[in-house]
Amino acid sequence: MPVRKIPLGRRSITGAYSSVKMDRLVYHESTLERDFIYLLEFDSNVDRYEEQPMAVQYYAGRRLITHVPDFKVRYHTADKQRSTVIFQVKYRDDLLTNWKKYHPALRATKRFARDHGWEARIVTDREIRIPRLQNVKRLLPFRLHLIDEDEASLCTELLRPSPLALKALLSFLQEHGKEPAAMLPTIYSLIVGQRISIDLDVPLAPQTILTLP
């Protein structure tokens, strides 16, 4: 749970996101943090994450300063171990303009992370607001979609011989008596569940190539 309470704003700058991965509300202080949460929710390599995770203290002269990083993220790794990263989420223009102000806290956070065997990273809107984010925002609502397993099996069987464009798969489904528009939620849910793969870094479109993992 966060070490510092985030007040809900009246302009939707701050707010809360209902996290399926964390099974609770996750709070954010900006729309950029909210978008970062979307990416964490979708990323299957993320085991768990926490906002406002700890207090990092450092001295500025004789004054003791307390800084609270934005997120702590624990990742699965290939060898089934865990890796932890502390993230600071910043708008790039703000980071560059106010680097001298932010630098002491960022340096202290990096030292804190190193002392715990973790990493510390800065992520900006350039890394967050990319085509992948738009795909994630489009697909996430379908993660709890109740799948008809017969329809899911039909989708995967049609993809088994070779990859297909989304529009081609929908055409084949129509030949099997399925309404294309009604099948989209199932296809999107299969993508979220990693039973169908796409290139998430290219905008999702009728020409998107679908493959089996």
Overall description:
The protein is of the alpha+beta class. It folds into two domains: about 15-130, Trna Endonuclease, Chain: A, domain 1 (3-Layer(aba) Sandwich), CATH 3.40.1350.10; about 135-210, no CATH class. Helices cover about 40% and strands about 25% of the residues. It has eight helices and ten strands. The strands form four sheets. The chain has a four-stranded mixed beta sheet. Strand 6 (about 70-75) and strand 7 (about 80-90) form a beta hairpin. The longest helix has 17 residues, at about 100-115. It is elongated. The model has no long low-confidence stretch (mean pLDDT about 95).
> Order of helices and strands, N to C?
EEHEEEEEHHEHHHEHHE
The first-level CATH class of the largest domain is given as Alpha Beta
The main sheet orders its strands as 3-6-7-8
- Output the number of helix runs: 8
Fraction in helix: 25-40%
> Could you give the count of β-strands?
10
State the distance separating the first and last CA atoms: 35 Å
SSE-based structural type: alpha+beta
Query: How would you sum up the major sheet?
Result: 4 strands, mixed
Instruction: Kindly give the count of domains.
Output: 2
Global outline: elongated
Binned strand content: 15-25%
Instruction: Fill in the CATH topology of the largest domain.
Output: Trna Endonuclease, Chain: A, domain 1
The CATH architecture assignment of the largest domain turns out to be: 3-Layer(aba) Sandwich
Residue stretches low in confidence (pLDDT < 50, at least 5 long) are none
Please give the radius of gyration in angstroms: 21 Å
Average of per-residue pLDDT values = 93
